[in-house]
Amino acid sequence: MTHSPRVVVLSGGLSHERDVSLRSGRRVAEALRLAQVEVTVHDVDADLIPMLSDIRPDVVWPILHGASGEDGSIRDVLELLDLAYVGTGPRSSRIAWSKPVAKSVVARAGISTPDYVTLPQSLFRELGAQAVMNAVVAKIGLPLVVKPSRGGSALGVTLVRSIAELPRAMVTCFAYGDVALLERAVTGTEVAVSVIETADGCQALPPVEIVTDGPYDYDARYNPGRTEYFAPARVTAEQAETVARTAIEAHKALGLRHISRTDLILEADGSIQFLEVNVAPGMTETSLFPQAALAGGRELPELYRSIVETARVRQDS
Fold this sequence. Notes:
By secondary structure, the chain is of the alpha+beta class.
């Protein structure tokens, strides 16, 4: 490449995770500037398409969390404008964005994932909430985790230990979407494994272990003090290799591109359970992706520039 890439970082948007996106975008832009990359940061608004059409950046990096940033829609727009961008294409983004669909895809690829059921809010009204909840507990058991079928940052997620806690958990979940995923709770070491694709190919960064004083909810994720991170995770070399391989397998099975982060549980017997995957990992000061990169001895400016350079080579979504 003969010139430094011109990059537009997209952050903000109108989802519940707007603040996190703004912080992530600011961090990535700062790192890219340190790597001598010309960066413009832009929100998702009526000025975006005219601006992109006017300046024609070499690469767009959408760091948008929540619906429009991760459901493929903003990526569809970038495809329409024929712009190269960092991250997964629109079709695979939609698959990853739906937690039940992603779980079914990775399960077909031979990756274990906790038993689950997906239920829309309308079904609870039609069949009677208590009858449905009784059937769920009878089949999946307790404890279980209730979460919106789409969404991130653990918004609307509740750990349910008794059937008496289930109604409130459902109300909390449905505040963030009209379809709930009810999943068997698994215990063990929670790790997040980030995957990157650069000129050297597809590789996993060191796993980051997550230890909280309670549920790993929105507050625990983004406000320092609630959560302790171990980067790299306190696991054996063999376990680290296994979770890395699992994350890369999930990345490939779902058709992801450039970057992803897979959340896994390493159970006491050594088995791995897939929870979910993120096509637009958080990049804030407490986020898992940058922690993993630093634990692997990588400098963020150089790593982010290498990801941008990889995205400059246009690939099919």
